[in-house]
Amino acid sequence: MAEHEEQSGGVPPLDEEAAWAAIVAGYGQEPPDPPGSRPFQPIENLLLPEEDVKPLPPEPGPDAEPEPPAAPAPTLGSSVVFAPGVGMAGPRDHSPAEPDDEAAAADEGHFVQPEPELPPADTTAKFAWLAVVGGPVLLLLAVLLQWDMTWWLTTLGIGGFLGGFATLVARMQHGDDEDDDPGRGAVV
Fold first, then answer.
1. What residues contact residue 158 under an 8 Å CB cut-off, 6+ apart?
2. Contact 142, 157 (CB under 8 A)
3. What value does the CA radius of gyration of the chain take, rounded to a whole number of Å?
4. Which residues contact 157 (CB under 8 A, 6 or more apart)?
């Protein structure tokens, strides 16, 4: 490697060969645990008592005063440490502040969605939908009520469905006239 000249500020250059040699020498070694941390335990040993757990106190006699209950023992996974200022409360534990003014409490500023304006249906579309839905319903009723499946019942059920479907497809608007109605977008 090329020798580096001394950098400005009087800081000597980094010896890259020594740094790489230290990295290669330490490859595969586990770094030491930070001070005050517990050693890693496999999942099989988590239910076993730990060395730093205090034994249970002896049971008090009948004339001894009852002691106040101690804090609950930590459960599995309780070694999670949150950042300072972050408690066990989550985002769903938030409650909004109460309004100060009674007028503000009465008018909460809710948006009331208007009822959608459906286009008026013409008579042909109504009969087409009646045929599309009514044909299969008629055939289903004939099977459930064990009617004789006559030619006119079959023709009315199947023909009604096919005729209504064909009518609805034929009356669909074509997508070629996009420029004619520019007002179908979102209203901001």
1. 135, 139
2. yes
3. 40
4. 135, 136, 138, 139, 142
Pick from 168, 179, 93, 90: which is nearest to 131 by CA?
168
Contact 105, 148 (CB under 8 A): no
Tell me the two tokens of residue 88. 């066990």
d(CA 149, CA 182): 51
pTM of the model: 0.35
- Please report, in tens digits, the pLDDT of each residue of the chain (188 residues total): 455 555 566 777 888 999 899 888 888 887 777 787 776 766 766 665 555 555 566 666 666 666 666 666 555 555 566 566 566 666 667 677 776 666 555 556 677 788 888 888 889 999 999 999 999 999 999 999 999 999 999 999 999 999 999 999 998 877 665 555 566 667 66
CA 8 to chain centre: 53
Instruction: Answer for the pair 163, 131: CB distance below 8 angstroms, yes or no.
Output: yes
